[in-house]
Design goal:
Elements: H1 2-7, H2 12-19, H3 23-30, H4 38-48, H5 52-56, H6 62-65
């Protein structure tokens, strides 16, 4: 989050003012010390003009997209054994 904000040349104080949040709160969110609600995340992403996935790390890896992958979000845990042979 912080890297994206800084790459756009937006200070923490300016972002906080623009989205109506406390700069200390946003700093803690950016540093992983505190979570943020969906509303704050949407405001943050909107102000930086990025998709929400860019700041929430929801982007899937190729392994998560592969059918049958134990990392795939819709994988059936009953069909996957701990040793990966299922």
């Amino acid at each position: 989050m912080k890297a994206i904000r800084e790459a756009r040349g937006i200070s923490l104080q300016q972002l906080a003012k623009d989205i109506g949040r406390d700069p200390g709160f946003l700093s803690r969110v950016e540093n992983g010390q505190q979570g943020a609600g969906a509303g704050t995340l949407h405001l943050y992403a909107s102000r930086l003009d990025v998709p929400i996935a860019a700041i929430t790390h929801e982007e899937r890896t190729r392994d998560q997209e592969r059918p049958g992958s134990p990392h795939r979000h819709d994988a059936d845990p009953a069909t996957h054994r701990a040793d990966g042979s299922g």
